Structure formats: C-alpha cells, structure tokens
Amino acid sequence: MKQFLIVILLFASFSAKSQTISEANSKRLQKMEDSIKSFATDIVTADEWIDRFRADSFFTRGLVRALLIPNSFYYNFDSLPISKLLAPDSSFKIFTWQVMKDFSYYRQRGAIQMRTEDGSLKLFPLFDISDFTSYPNDSTRDNRHWIGAIYYKIILKSFNNKKYYTLLGSDENDEKSNKKWIEVLSFDAGGNPQFGGKFFSYPLNDVTKPKQPVARFCLEYKKDAGVRMNYDQRYDAIIFDHLTSEGDDPNNKYSLIPYGDYEGFRWVNGLWKFLSNPFANVIFDDKQSAFPAPILDEKGKVNEKKLLEQSKKNMQKSPKDQY
After folding, report:
1. What is the maximum alpha-carbon separation in the chain?
2. Distance of CA 295 to the CA centre of its chain
C-alpha cells in the first residue's frame, strides 16, 4: 500500500511539472509576444489594406512559432489585441481575430490549440471560407471550411456523455450589416474539431432568423445597430435582442434593429430550444444579470421609465459592452 502511494505521488509530481512553463521558456514566450504585438496592432490600425494583410501574415507566422515552445498552452499572451478564449474544462484554447480590406470585405482568422500531456503543440488552423458559400448555415464543417467569427464566449454543455462547446461570436460582415453567431463545436472520435450540427429549435415563420434547417445560428442586422447576444448564467440561457425591421421589411437584414425586448435559447436534451421570453417567471434584477430589464411590458407596451434608463446606460457603454 505504501509503495502504491509513492507511485501515485511520483506520478502526480511528474504531471504537475509537465503542466507548467519553465522560466527559460516563459522568457522566450515573453520576447516572442513582444515581437509580434506590433503586427497584431497593425492588422487593425494600418492605413493601407496591403499593410494590414502583410501584418496579418507576419503575426500568424510569429504566433505559430511561439506556440511551438513547450507548454505554451499555459501562457496567456495578455498583450495581444486578439480574442483568446480558454474552454471551461481547459481542454483547448481558441484564438480569433479579423483582417479588413475595406468596409465590404472582412476575413476572420483563427486557431484551436489543444492541451497536451507532454506540452507539445497540437494546433488546428481555422480557414474562413465565408465568401465562398452562399448559405453558411447549411452544414457541419471542419476547421478547413470554417465560417469565421471573432469569438467572445464559450459555453460548455453535454448530452449523452459527450461535450459540446457553444461559441458566441461577432462578424462585421460588410458595409451594410453585422452578424452575431452561435456555433456549436465538438470533437470527433479522432479528436478533430467539428463546427455545427442540428442543435437549434425555433419558430419556422420568423424571417428575422435563418431559414431552417440550420447547422449554426446567426442574427444579421443593420450596421452599428448595437444588437446584444450573450450567455446569462443566472438564467442558464443565451439571451439576445428581438429584432424588427425599421423599414417594415423583415426579409431585408440590413434593416433589422433591436425591438426593445429579448429572446433566447436554453440547452434542453442536446438542443438549444427557443425562448420567447427568457425572463418568464423570474423576478428581474439588473444587479443579477448582464442584460437590462425588458423595455416592453407583458402587453407589449413600452415602459417609458425603463426606456429612458436604458438609453442613458447605452450612451455610457464602450463597444465591447455590446456583446
């Protein structure tokens, strides 16, 4: 029994060492992060599109070289102005960013870094093929046929002993509209990422949402309309703005704006099921939620007091608070 405990302790000690970055490698990573930080900034701020794309190329190559350093998974790259998300179970990280040619052309970039026992690099590059498909909602895709987005939230759910990672993302799309995406990521038996699947149930007659069946969910709306979509843990739901057309043509995605109340999805038996009122039977408290109180009452009338309060709050928000 004593020998068995010693073996366990030795194994735990070895595992702990394998899950940390040595001081030397940490310093190497810091230097490499410093060397590519300016490229990451230029992707966004460079005046000419060719300079932005050149910076993207240098940044991508530099990031991959940095990730090749043993146990880089445990390094945060805090100074890089890109999205860096860690899965709730720490099984992978996902990096996403975008490069812009002009106001009509945005291309997302990304990579999934898997956690490995020996600290070696297992990386899945993400190739955005949005411009090469007429219906991006249609099918399950691998990392080489990714529908691009900049992800800002990962939600871990499970069904039948399998894990599903729901990604919430934004996409500036083009000069007329923005998009918010809900993408379910899973891994097949070989450990390869799969994006999408039959995970969404919502009303068939709502033309503000993608025509069913869909493998991923998207809200497309008027540029700079400030549509919110996020996961609220207190309600265990993805909550988003209910959209309406300001031109009385809901088929025109460029005209869709927030209506004043909210809709959502809740995970039930392996599906994100639609909620027409995610706050039903709940006493709403602004201090308990990332979302403001509904502006419309139960009869659909505008609560003028709530509308005024929310308008004041919106004017004080930074762009990142709109997620």
Report:
1. 77
2. 27
